């Protein structure tokens, strides 16, 4: 019997590519999205079932899970992929905008997970794969809101991993750095548009703009493929591994974060984000 994966946020980017890859590998795919008319990026495959799921609407979460189980009989893996990035100087971002960032990136993933756990507990099996970011390990300038949401996602995932392991359920994290190459960055621009510009920050914005240009130029050409393969590996490798690092563009930052002293890490990142 084919296994089944439910993926949130499949209208574009990593989500659509992951849905297509799993389907090509013979999996049943419950491809969910807020607007089910946006399926242009999905392959026309009999084993891809499209249904509405808005992570900010718990009723739609329950309905999507029920519809997927009704269609395929069971769900084996959930990929919490839906999310976006709020960029901007912290002082310019309203509390309401910050709340929305956490509602989608953190509470949305929590609500999808909470909704699927009774099904996984009944089977004594299942895998939760949360799509984080290198920004979930490193506080990126101009992305303090996004980074803090991903830090929260990672801390929560690491905590529930212990709770769920005794039930045969795994919780895993994907930390891509190549999001700059997907539609994610287009949405970043949209979510950040209209923020107040405080002139005092202009020199900093010019400096950090150069740093982000360097980062964007370093993105792996096959970043999306690497992320998709990493998600598939997490779903199929049969291990209890927690974190997966698919792209190389921010590997130096991750290595500094996890393999050096605090003083060395701070010196490295200060230089990394400095203008050249």
Automatic annotation (TrEMBL):
Molecular function terms, GO-annotated: oxidoreductase activity
Entry superkingdom: Bacteria
Keyword set, alphabetical order: Oxidoreductase
Family annotation (InterPro entries): NAD(P)-bd_dom_sf, Sc_DH/Rdtase_CS, SDR_fam, SDR_oxidoreductase
PROSITE patterns documented for this protein: ADH_SHORT
CDD domains, per database record: 17beta-HSD-like_SDR_c
Record bears the keyword Oxidoreductase: yes
Pfam families (alphabetical): adh_short
Family, per entry: Belongs to the short-chain dehydrogenases/reductases (SDR) family.
PANTHER family per the UniProt record, alphabetical: SHORT CHAIN DEHYDROGENASE (PTHR43976), SHORT-CHAIN DEHYDROGENASE_REDUCTASE FAMILY PROTEIN (PTHR43976:SF16)
Designated name of the protein: SDR family oxidoreductase
Gene source species: Chitinophaga agrisoli
Lineage, top ranks: Bacteria, Pseudomonadati, Bacteroidota, Chitinophagia, Chitinophagales
């Amino acid at each position: 019997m084919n296994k089944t994966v439910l993926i949130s946020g499949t209208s574009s980017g990593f989500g659509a590519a992951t849905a297509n890859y799993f389907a090509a590998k013979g999996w049943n795919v419950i491809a969910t999205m807020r607007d089910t008319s946006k399926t242009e990026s999905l392959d026309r495959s009999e084993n891809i079932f499209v249904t509405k799921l808005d992570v900010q609407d718990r009723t739609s979460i329950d309905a999507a899970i029920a519809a997927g189980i009704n269609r395929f009989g069971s769900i084996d893996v959930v990929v919490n992929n839906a999310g976006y990035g709020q960029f901007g100087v912290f002082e310019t971002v309203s509390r309401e905008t910050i709340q929305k960032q956490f509602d989608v990136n953190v509470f949305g993933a929590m609500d999808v997970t909470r909704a699927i756990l009774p099904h996984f507990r009944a089977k004594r099996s299942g895998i939760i794969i949360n799509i984080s970011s290198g920004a979930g390990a490193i506080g990126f300038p101009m992305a303090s809101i996004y980074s803090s949401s991903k830090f929260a996602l990672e801390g929560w995932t690491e905590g529930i991993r212990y709770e769920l392991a005794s039930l045969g359920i795994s919780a895993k994290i994907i930390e891509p750095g190549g999001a700059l190459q997907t539609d994610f960055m287009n949405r970043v621009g949209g979510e950040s548009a209209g923020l107040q510009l405080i002139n005092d920050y202009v020199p900093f914005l010019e400096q950090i703009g150069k740093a982000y240009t360097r980062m964007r130029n370093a993105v792996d050409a096959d970043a999306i493929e690497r992320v998709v393969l990493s998600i598939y590996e997490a779903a199929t490798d049969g291990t209890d591994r927690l974190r997966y690092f698919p792209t190389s563009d921010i590997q130096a930052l991750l290595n500094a974060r996890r393999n050096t002293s605090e003083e060395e890490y701070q010196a490295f990142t200060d230089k990394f984000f400095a203008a050249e």
